[in-house]
Design a protein that fits this description.
Elements: H1 2-27, H2 35-62, H3 66-80, H4 85-89, H5 98-104, H6 114-121, E1 135-138, E2 148-151, H7 153-173, E3 183-185, E4 192-193, E5 199-200, H8 229-242, E6 248-253, H9 254-277, H10 288-295, H11 302-313, H12 319-323, E7 329-333, H13 339-349, E8 355-356, E9 359-362, E10 365-369, E11 380-382, E12 388-393, E13 415-421, E14 429-441, E15 444-452, H14 466-477, E16 484-492, E17 507-514, H15 521-534, H16 536-544, E18 551-554, H17 559-571, H18 587-594
Parallel strand pairs: 3-6, 6-7, 7-8, 17-18
Antiparallel strand pairs: 1-2, 4-5, 9-10, 10-11, 11-15, 12-13, 13-14, 14-15, 16-17
Helix pairs in contact: 2-7, 8-9, 9-11, 9-13, 14-15, 15-16
Length: 599
């Protein structure tokens, strides 16, 4: 009997192995990769699929009893930090429910925490949170100056869980991502240490945190160790271009993917030569150790180089699908400040390739996930276990301590400012994000990001939002024959000081466009006319003469990428976390873009 059982077990094992090998071969798309590399990719993907399904079920359950889940989320944060200096000051031990929390703790902004965080950076413990921060993250400084936000392992876990939920959504809508195609991950590592040896860098998960998953990326491990953005960008593109069967492009923001394609368009001949010769370009400023590791992964490939040369020579419209015929998806946030870059990708470089804006997140942590990859509208389901949320009706945002609503009290089609209590020592923190509730999933609000209060144009109380100005600018550009808007930013004339050239406050607008070299004064004035049509209050101030006309300046090609690099260096933030400032609040940023004006 034992022999029979062993024989049957052996037959079944062989049968399972044959099925496994057949499934791997069917999913490999003819890639010339070692079998164990494909097996590792296969097992990683299968594990992720199961984990994402379980996480999705847990997440769905958390949205069915939103009041209780938010109650538990809040009390866990409070209980965990009740014995900190801050917890004792604000009587955390007396907080038993959300109403008590709201009555004992004020709404806050960053200045409220600045001194506490500076002490933590110097090494003090048990100040705001009971655990040592795992990371110090720098914001992109949209309000005018950057800020340091604490992150803990719980913050990272929230991101991981959110991405798992999104991965399940991707599999349901785009099942072809289940094939064993590699992903080009445009991640840029930028790390340093504080004086207390706490790492300073992005709070979102790095590809290096999971060695097993590195096999699914087109960039070798050494490529993720490069700390300078231009060199890392080049390496990510080089190895992505070598892989004809590439399945996905991934980055934090659509701006990163867009700038990578723009870089490729300018340097494609150099890439062709490096692929043809199988070399790492000698001009790259990388360490010898990293260079040797990367060089070991390259072999001369004249056939692929000739194929790419033919495609690049035909232009860059739809280039993504032409150089990667089996490309399934671009995974990057293209809402908010990244909407323009997403539009460029969809309409030009990545024509025909869907873009999935998976998460709504910030340096403060994970806020929402997009369960509907197929929708054009970028809608996010708030994550009730990631943060404790309060919502401030938009008409009360001007108040310092307005009455807030809880998630079970908000209404559809209403606008709110978000206030959050996160895992990392921010309590009732006003983020300045304005969201619109567009519906509910089970009991949990589904929202659209609308604009940031700090990015509002307001010289006389007219309050032109980031979203309104962007849509108005797009409409005005259509009245400039042949012009295509590539990028833009605005400045309130007060930032110019005595050099504003007018006694009337007004907006200075800097645009990077293609298709035309210059604009007439009448064409430039179209933007002011469109603004008057779109904002009754702006029109009233213009007619009274208390606001001057918009002034439009054209900057040289590539100016906004240079501005981005300058801002990142000035703010000491990470490229992977940077959001473009549509309204400049710092004089040095204004001075930089003014030097790029050509018309």
């Amino acid at each position: 009997m034992l022999l029979i059982a062993a024989f049957i077990f052996g037959i079944l094992s062989v049968w399972v192995l044959v099925l496994l090998c057949c499934d791997i071969c069917n999913r490999s798309w003819g890639q010339k990769r070692p079998f164990f590399s494909l097996l590792n990719h296969y097992l990683t993907h299968r594990t992720a699929s199961v984990a994402s399904l379980l996480q999705r079920r847990r997440f769905e359950f958390s949205t069915t009893n939103i009041q209780q889940v938010q109650h538990n989320t809040l009390l866990y944060r409070i209980h965990r930090n009740r014995n900190t200096e801050y917890g004792k000051l604000y009587r955390f031990s007396e907080i038993t429910d959300r109403e008590t929390f709201r009555s004992l703790h004020p709404l806050t902004r960053y200045d409220h925490y600045k001194d506490y965080i500076e002490r933590i950076v110097k090494g003090e413990e048990n100040v705001l949170i009971s655990v040592r921060p795992s990371v110090l993250s720098r914001t992109s400084g949209i309000s005018g100056s950057s800020a340091t936000i604490l992150s803990t392992r719980m913050t990272t876990n929230d991101f991981h869980q959110g991405f798992e939920v999104c991965f399940n959504s991707m599999l349901n809508v785009y099942p072809r991502i289940g094939n064993l195609q590699r992903t080009a991950n445009f991640f840029y590592s930028s790390w340093s240490n504080s004086e207390s040896r706490i790492p300073i860098g992005p709070n979102s998960p790095s590809p290096l945190t999971s060695k097993l998953k590195l096999n699914i990326y087109s960039t070798p491990v050494a490529g993720f160790e490069i700390t300078t953005e231009p060199e890392a960008q080049y390496i990510h593109l080089l190895f992505a271009l070598k892989d004809r069967s590439l399945g996905m492009l991934e980055a934090s923001f659509a701006s990163i993917v867009y700038h990578s394609f723009a870089f490729l368009q300018n340097k494609w001949e150099q890439f062709i030569e490096d692929i043809r010769l199988g070399r790492i370009n000698a001009k790259l400023k990388i360490t010898d150790d990293v260079r040797l590791k990367l060089q070991a992964q390259l072999k001369p490939d004249p056939r692929r180089a000739s194929e790419l040369a033919a495609e690049f020579g035909s232009g860059f419209n739809g280039i993504a699908r032409r150089v990667w015929p089996h490309l399934n998806l671009v995974l990057a946030v293209d809402s908010g400040a990244n909407e323009l870059y997403g539009s460029h990708l969809k309409g030009f470089y990545c024509e025909g390739v869907p873009i999935y804006s998976a998460v709504y997140a910030a340096t403060e942590g994970l806020i929402g996930v997009n369960l509907w990859p197929e929708k054009e509208e970028r809608q996010y389901l708030l994550c009730p276990q990631s943060m404790f949320f309060e919502c401030i009706p938009v008409d009360l945002c001007h108040e310092e301590q307005p009455q807030t609503l809880f998630l079970d009290e908000v209404k559809e089609n209403e606008l709110y400012e978000l206030a959050v209590t996160n895992t990392s020592g921010l309590y009732r923190y006003r983020m300045g994000d304005i969201i619109k509730v567009v519906g509910f999933h089970n009991q949990c609000p589904v929202v659209e990001f609308k604009y940031r209060q700090s990015q509002m144009l307001n010289v006389r109380g007219e309050k032109i939002t980031e979203e309104t100005f962007y849509q108005t600018l797009l409409r005005a550009v259509k009245l400039w024959p042949g012009a295509v808007l590539l990028d833009y930013c605005c400045v309130e004339s007060g930032l110019l000081g005595p050099f504003c050239g007018s006694s009337d406050p007004h907006y200075e607008v800097f645009v990077e466009i293609k298709g035309v070299r210059n604009l007439s004064e009448d064409q430039r004035y179209k933007l002011d006319q469109c603004l008057q049509e779109d904002s009754e209050l702006y029109q009233l101030f213009r007619r009274k003469g208390s606001i001057g006309p918009v002034r439009v300046h054209i900057v040289a090609p590539g100016s906004f990428k240079e501005l981005t690099d300058f801002m990142i260096a000035s703010l000491d933030t990470s490229y992977s976390q940077f959001n473009m400032h549509r309204v400049l609040r710092r004089k040095e940023f204004l001075d930089f873009i003014q030097r790029k004006v050509i018309s």
